[in-house]
Design brief:
The protein is α+β, with helices and mostly antiparallel strands and 99 residues long. The chain has three helices and four strands. It has one domain. The mean pLDDT is 89.
């Protein structure tokens, strides 16, 4: 019985290490609570932060997050499930202009 427990723990440890190695690394994270965006990791231009607030207000987004993932020489945006597709595209457009 103890041998089986040790095997499960070893497999769990290997899976945890693999997850840590392959998970996305966010250069910035903006959390939206009660419709108000706030930077929780990294740095974001104040103009882009204002645009996030405007887009979220227009689309009635009250919570969620927007993150930036480094992909080669550019930063791609990632979104929580609380941000609808139309709002995501508006934020991508704003990122190209002000990010």
């Amino acid at each position: 019985m103890l041998d089986l427990l040790v095997k499960f723990l070893a497999v769990g440890l290997v899976l945890a290490v693999c997850w840590i190695a392959i998970r996305p690394r966010y250069t910035f994270v903006v959390r939206i609570k009660a419709g108000s965006p706030r930077v929780t990791r990294g740095k974001v231009a104040v103009t882009f932060l204002r645009r996030i607030a405007e887009v979220c207000e227009r689309n009635r987004v009250q919570r969620g997050w927007v993150g930036g993932i480094q992909k080669e020489r550019r930063i791609a945006l990632a979104f929580s499930r609380h941000i609808p597709p139309d709002c995501r595209q508006q934020l991508r457009n704003e990122w190209l202009l002000f990010g």
